[in-house]
Amino acid sequence: MKKQYRINYILSLILVFGIGTMLPTLIGSSMVSEQHSAKSEVPYCVTPPTVPEKVSFDGETIDLRRYDRRERMDREMMSFTYMHSTTMLLVKRANRYFPIIEPLLKENGIPDDFKYLMVIESNLNNIARSPVGAAGLWQFMPATAREFGLEVNDNVDERYHIEKATVAACKYFKQAYAKYGDWMAVSASYNAGQGRISSQLEQQLANHAMDLWLVEETSRYMFRLLAIKEVLSNPQRYGFLLKKEHLYPPIPYKEIEVTTQIDNLDDYAKQQGITYAQLRDANPWLREHSLKNKSGKKYVLKIPTQEGMNYDPKKTEAYNKNWVID
């Protein structure tokens, strides 16, 4: 019996291996040639997304027919289309963060499209920190964050506070728009700085920021903004097929106002029925194991509920119906 079992086992392995070896050839030569009238040495085909003739940003129509604009847009659309895991995560995370961000943009008179600027700044990772020290969803540098009203020190760093950082970003956008009167120039200045964009518009005698010759990072920045709007507006068109349960839902919290010092946040978290790690995840602006608060400032701590920490993916709702398939 054991001998026969070994023989059957070996035959099964040979069969599986044989099918696995032949499958790419079958798919590559038969299916690809039938569907695409082309032969491929790999078991899949890659095709570039179509670059639209025009796109809009805050209602402004941007013509992409000129060769340089078209090719720059093409590069960024291909990047987001084939940066599979990253773009998939963006769709998942957008379901959590866009419901928070959109009302704040509207309340502060900022175009809704600026939520996509936040996407390309941080990949919707609220604990992101760049090598040069920019931090949070909006990737504020420390000095700029303080200029627009955020507290930044070793104990508290409000660049990681979603709502406060978004309001600070809105203040920046308003200030820049008062200077340029053009939202695309505002977005370019967020990357390069207002001084650089102003000087280059003047020196190059350009009427639009997208026509400037800039360092590659800023030059790509504006087209990355337009490209991620295209992809996130309709992920299915670019091959991202998600169900509702794949998305990340907003986490429900209870809020506790604090006006005193908390000597030990580890103990405080335990008293709230959560861990210190969960407290930090809900309040990443806390930077140490204590909240010093010598001035008696009012802080609001988010405490995740048990329902929030153990959510049922099948009950997740899609904030944007275009993000999911039935």
From TrEMBL:
InterPro entries: Lysozyme-like_dom_sf, Transglycosylase_SLT_dom_1. Residues 100-204 form the Transglycosylase SLT domain. It comes from the Bacteria. The chain crosses the membrane at residues 7-27. The keyword Membrane applies. Keywords: Membrane, Transmembrane, Transmembrane helix. PANTHER family: MEMBRANE-BOUND LYTIC MUREIN TRANSGLYCOSYLASE C, SOLUBLE LYTIC MUREIN TRANSGLYCOSYLASE-RELATED. Belongs to the transglycosylase Slt family. This is Transglycosylase SLT domain-containing protein. It comes from Bacteroides faecichinchillae.
